[in-house]
Every structure is written in structure tokens, then in C-alpha cells.
Amino acid sequence: MTNGRHKGTIMVVDDDQGAMEALSDILEYEGYQVQRAQNGLQALEHLQTTRPSPDLIILDLLMPVMDGWEFRVRQKEDPELAKVPVLVVTAIAATAGIDAVSVLHKPVDVDALLRTVARYCN
Amino acid sequence: MVRQNLNSTAVQKKLEAELQARDEFFSAIAHELRNPLNALHLTVAGLLRAHGGAMPLSSEQVVARLTRASTQVSRLAKLVDEMLDVSRISAGRLILQLDDFDASTVLAEVVERAKDPANASLISLSRPPSLLIRCDRTRFAQIASNLLSNAIVYGLQRPIEVRLDSDPSTIRLEVVDHGIGIAEADQERIFERFVKLAKDDANVRFGIGLWITRAVVRALKGDIHVASQPDRGSTFVVKLPKLDPAGTPVPSE
Known about the structure:
The complex is a heterodimer of chains A (about 120) and B (about 250). With about 120 residues, chain A is α/β, with parallel strands linked by helices. In chain A, about 40% of the residues lie in helices and about 20% in strands. Chain A has one domain: Rossmann fold, CATH 3.40.50. Chain A has helices at about 15-30, 40-50, 70-75, 80, 110-120; strands spanning about 10-15, 30-35, 55-60, 85-90, 100-105. In chain A, β1 (about 10-15), α1 (about 15-30) and β2 form a beta-alpha-beta unit. The radius of gyration of chain A is 13 Å and the shape is globular. Chain B has five helices and seven strands; from the N terminus they run ααβαββαββαββ. In chain B, the strands form two sheets. In chain B, strands 2-4-5-7-6 form a five-stranded mixed β-sheet, with helices on one face. A two-stranded antiparallel ribbon of chain B has the order 1-3. The chains are: A alpha/beta (about 120), B alpha+beta (about 250).
């Protein structure tokens, strides 16, 4: 179900299945294509094997296997992947040290999220 | 006098450590609450946006999303119940409601509720056709549900066996997984309050569920043990005394 036009591709990285499904529903309804990963490692593997890269990555921080901080370090080691902007969405207050175009806190302000998404995907 | 001072310093240090652990626990709980809250919020926001949008959702899509919202409400309710249990157990105010019921049926219901499309074929249940016991029905279900959800989380998508049987004096519940297992040094600690086992701070998870489970088992005059090997899996065994309808233990033969 989309509003018809394809606006861009977003990767959502979150280990919380409920949040992942609900966020994907909203983004797909708005016309974006969504790629899903449950942790940083899955995201990295998907990004390394899939071209073109997404327009934006929406990244959770606290995740098993590989968290958001380590994902950012690894992402920046790859010149091609380093270009993809990252929007952090997290349940924790202490986000110092994370390098992102924007940081939103859970529960997420959907309008603010879609404004940021639109800025990088249109 | 010197010894008294030493003791009071040790007591103070212990209290400070307990207080810090409690503060960390509440901050972790707040974080745990934010995840289902966020998922619920996004689900409702998605429904509202679609309702006001150009392309309405089909009734099947609406039902699917409402079902997910309901799952998040259950997650929130479970976390709130856990917080209340922590407070009740800490204050020694856990109240049991003994009742006669079929433990085999209650266990089958718990197992059915825990199943989802990803794990349904992994979970097997071995139980007698019926097992009438006197116990607290809700707490019995809670014990089984906590152990089973741990087995699912740490079971690496491998088979899980749930078994129920009894002898004349004891009811025995066993939950076996073949997942990540628990290092020997951690096997007692997993039952402690406010314990964190993850190595790095970013992945702090508080295993309050097992502390609650053990407290409930003990309130029911039973005991709980774990046998585990890293990378081989864990077996949790709960033994509860069989009570006669008057609520007193059945003498063993």
C-alpha cells in the first residue's frame, strides 16, 4: 500500500520487531521503499551486497550482535557506504558521541521523522 | 570499636551498591517501556495517517495493525506487572491465590500463547492428559511463561522442549532450550535481582524475570534449578510440592 509514487529507499535498522513493522508501514504508505535489518551486522551485510545504496538509514542504537555505534564506525570505513546519511531513533537519552544527521527519541514524533526523511529522499 | 567502624563502612558500601543497582534497574525499565510504547505509538500514528490519507487501508490491513497494537499493549502490561511484582516481592507482599486446576491444560495454553509463526514448529510440549493440582493458577502460568520466553529469546531458533510430569509428592516442570546457554559462573547470578550479564554497557539487559520466577516458585514452597553449558543450551527445572485440596503437602510415600 503506497501513495503511488516511489520517493526513495530507506533502510530501517531496529531489533524491536513491533517498531520495525509500524515504522515500515508508515514509510511505505508515504511511498518509500523500505529495507529491514534487525541489527548493525545485518544492516552492514545487506548494504555491502546491495546496490544502489539506500537514500537514508534509520538507525536504533541499542541492539544485540552489533549496536548502532559500532555500525556507524564500520559504515564510515567503507567510502561508498559512508555517504549514506543516518537518522538515529533511540529509546536512550545518552546519545553523545553518535554522529548522525538527526537524533529522535522514542516514542518518535512522526511528523519530525517524515520531515527529516523527506529532506534526504526527495 | 575499630571492627564496628569497619562493619558500618562495609554495610554502607553494600547499601550504596544496592542503591546504584536499583537506580540502574529503574533506568533500564524506563528504556524497556519506551520500546513497546514507541511501537504502539507508531502503529496508531500509522493508522491515523492512513485514515486521513488518499488511499484508505483495507479492513484486513486495519485488523492486522490493530492486532499489532494489541500485542504492544500486552508487552506494556507485562512490564508494568513485572515492576509491581518487584515491588511486592521486595516488600514481602506477594499474595498467592490457591485454587484447584488442571496444570496440564494451563501449561498447554501458555505454550500456545508463546507460539508465533517463526517459532511454532520449534516448541514441543510433553504433558500428561490431565494433572489436577492445588496452586496459584496465574503464578503457575507466569513461571511457565517466563521460562518459555527466555528459551525463545536465548534459544537461537533451535528446538525447545517443555515437559510436565509429577510423582506422588512433586510437580515437575522442565523447559529445555539448545541456545546460547549460561556460563557456570553466571548460573546463580541469573536469579539475582537487578543483575546484568551483558559484557558491554550498550547491551545491558536486566534479567528481572528469573528473579521474579524464583521468588514466585519459593513462595509456592518449590525450588528452581538450571543446568546449562555455553553454546549447548539450558535446562530449567521447577519442582513444586503437590498439595491436597486442603492446601497441605501430600506426604511422600
